[in-house]
Amino acid sequence: MSSQDSRKPDVVQPAYQVQVQYEQRTAVYASQFVINAGEDELVLDCSSGVVLEGADATPQLPIHTRLAMSWGAARKLSKLLEQALRQHAESGSGNSLGSAAGGPAPYAKLPTMPLTHDQHS
What we know:
The protein is an alpha+beta fold. About 15% of the residues lie in helices and about 25% in strands.
């Protein structure tokens, strides 16, 4: 293998700011998750938790939100969650993300994912 073959492909990392605009201002709590994975996508089902239904109190997991995404988007989500958890652990505070008033930050710096010429996601 030549040194030319072992070089990393050129990486383009655009940096820009985007104003976050929420379609809904309410948040739905989720503490339980079910993942359904296919060849081309991943579906993340979200639930507030198990409830007991019916006369026999059968445990059920009501799904209130379904997020479908490509595997590339799932990797981005994973990295963002890891970053948020790391920041939370380092700050020792439950409010290390978002604005000082406790709400979401008015602007979010979008993560830059390396774009290469041979990326397949």
